[in-house]
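Practice problem 4.
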C-alpha cells in the first residue's frame, strides 16, 4: 500500500524505471491493457463501471463469484457499516488477489467516504495522488486527480487545519489535468511552506511544480532543501539529477545520478544510471 506523501512528474524513461523500482512495491501492479475502459479512445473520460467490468474480465469464475457476492452483500440491517465492510473487502481482494490498482483505489475511496475519518480519507487521497507519478494518459490523470481532490476536500471538512491535505489538494491541480490553470494549486502550497520551510511534502510538490512550469532553478532549490533534510529521500535526489540534466548542467547531473546509484541496489537501474552518467561525461 502507498503510505508516502509523494507525487512525481515523470519526465524520462530513466526516471520512470527508477521510480517503478523504488516505489513499485508499495502499490498494486497496474495492468492498463486489461482495464483501460476507453481504449482506443484514451481521451474520453474514465467510466468507472466500464473500468470495473473490464477488470472482472481477467478473473476466474471463482473470483467473479466472490466479487459478485461482495458487491451484493448490502441487503438489510446496518447498511452503512455493511457497505464500509464490503468496500474494504473488495479493496483487499483487488489488491491482494488480483493486484489491480484502479479497482483497489476505487473501493478504498468508497469505504473512506462512508467512514468519513481523516485517517481513511487522507490515506485514500494519497493513494490516488501517488499514482500520478507514473501516469501519462490525460484521461487517467484527470480521474486520479478528481478522486484525490474529492477525498482531500472531504478530509479538510473533518480537519480544516491539516496542511498536508491542503498541499495534496493543490497538487491535484498542478498534476491532475483538472484545471485550465494547473498552477493555481501553487499559491496555497507556497503559503504553507513560507510559514513552515521544514514541510518536506510541500517543498517536494513545489519542486515538481517548478519542473512542470520549466522553472528549473526554483525546482532545484526546493529539491535541495528536501535532500538536506532527508538525505535518504531518493525522490528528491533523483529529481535533482533529472533537473540538472534538463538544464544541461552535466557536472551536477552526474554528481546526483551517482548519489541515486548508491541508494539503489537494482542492477538494471544501476546499468541505466551508468549509461546516463557516461553519456554526460
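Answer key:
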Amino acid at each position: 500500500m502507498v503510505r508516502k506523501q509523494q507525487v512525481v512528474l515523470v519526465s524520462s524513461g530513466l526516471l520512470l524505471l527508477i521510480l517503478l523500482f523504488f516505489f513499485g512495491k508499495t502499490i498494486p501492479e497496474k495492468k492498463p491493457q486489461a482495464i483501460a475502459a476507453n481504449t482506443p479512445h484514451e481521451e474520453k473520460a474514465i467510466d468507472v463501471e466500464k473500468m470495473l467490468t473490464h477488470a472482472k474480465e481477467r478473473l476466474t469464475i471463482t473470483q467473479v463469484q466472490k466479487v459478485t457476492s461482495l458487491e451484493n452483500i448490502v441487503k438489510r440491517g446496518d447498511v452503512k457499516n455493511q457497505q464500509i465492510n464490503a468496500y474494504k473487502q473488495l479493496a483487499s481482494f483487488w489488491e491482494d488477489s488480483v493486484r489491480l490498482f484502479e479497482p483497489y483505489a476505487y473501493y478504498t475511496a468508497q469505504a473512506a467516504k462512508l467512514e468519513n475519518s481523516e485517517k481513511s480519507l487522507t490515506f485514500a487521497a494519497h493513494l490516488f495522488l501517488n499514482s500520478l507519478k507514473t501516469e501519462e494518459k490525460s484521461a487517467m490523470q484527470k480521474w486520479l486527480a478528481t478522486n484525490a481532490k474529492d477525498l482531500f476536500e472531504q478530509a479538510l471538512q473533518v480537519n480544516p487545519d491539516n496542511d498536508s491535505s491542503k498541499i495534496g489538494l493543490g497538487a491535484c491541480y498542478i498534476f491532475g489535468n483538472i484545471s485550465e490553470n494547473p498552477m493555481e494549486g501553487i499559491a496555497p502550497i507556497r503559503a504553507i511552506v513560507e510559514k513552515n520551510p521544514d514541510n518536506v511534502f510541500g517543498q517536494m510538490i513545489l519542486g515538481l511544480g517548478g519542473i512542470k512550469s520549466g522553472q528549473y532553478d526554483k525546482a532545484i532549490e526546493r529539491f535541495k532543501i528536501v535532500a538536506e533534510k532527508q538525505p535518504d529521500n531518493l525522490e528528491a535526489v533523483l529529481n535533482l539529477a533529472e533537473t540538472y540534466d534538463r538544464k544541461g548542467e552535466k557536472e551536477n547531473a552526474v554528481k546526483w545520478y551517482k548519489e541515486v546509484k548508491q541508494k539503489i541496489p537494482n542492477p538494471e537501474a544501476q546499468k541505466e544510471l551508468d549509461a546516463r552518467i557516461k553519456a554526460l561525461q
